[in-house]
Amino acid sequence: MTRALTIAVLAASLSLVGCTTRTPNPAGTSHPLWYWDEAAAVRAYRAGRYRDAERAIESAVRTANTTDVPAKDRARMLQTRAEIDRVQGRYAEAEAGLRDVLALREPALGANDPEVARAVSNLALVKSEQGKLDEAEELDRRALAILERVLGPDHPDAAMVRCNLAAVMVRRGRCREAEAEHRRALSARERALGPAHPDVGRSLDGLALAMTCDPARYEEAEPLFRRAVAIWEDAAGPSHPDVGLMLRDWGRAAAAAGRDAEADPLYRRALGIEEDALAPGGATTRAIAREYGTVLRRLGRDAEAAAIENRVCAAR
Q: Taking the model in full, what pTM does it have?
């Protein structure tokens, strides 16, 4: 899953981007304005409302720039903004923001702190989505080593980075190695979080992708795709962007296995979700439109394929 595992991605709690659930404090307790704007950004991000999240985090950063904000809070805020940039395909901005986070955290916390590892892991995601796989793998391995040493090899944060690393391995053609890493992460997450947690859904999706490097294993992997989507639909709703990305993964695997008729509705739904969630004509929606167009042409629906591609490209 591009955003959630290469994509994406992040712990469902947003702990890997340094964000926590924020709820209003009891009456009589006050926080600065940037705190509430940041909280609104986190809530919107978790709901898949990325444009709302962007507006809120930009307001938080503007306000914070006019006052004295503790370095740990500023780093968290910048990491949140970088993640919102990343999921919308603004990779240069995301990388710059994460380097600012590391410049704040490493001197204060040391190079081997889990908060540093979380920022390093997010930087690895950016590098992966830019196609810089050597750098992504190196960063993932650095983050994983820190988290395993400090938190333990089966901690959910370590499992998240393990999934990200495995996604890079898939893209480099090391699918059997990736499958083993995904299975280890899935086992750790199911023990720690339960079988219906969204992070378990992420692991299932990643495992299915690793398995379907061999299209002959599609029937074996299809139940994993189905379960991953069901978990996320139950947890976040059927229109969450990560549901769309999982449907795309499933559709891609079906198409690679020669099952274009099955891929068609998966791609159609994925494209609709991503068009609603992301900026018009963004990189993700263009990629889905291209892949869907290929499927439609193989089904003899050339005019429909052209119409979809033209609509998405025109929105850019």
A: 0.88
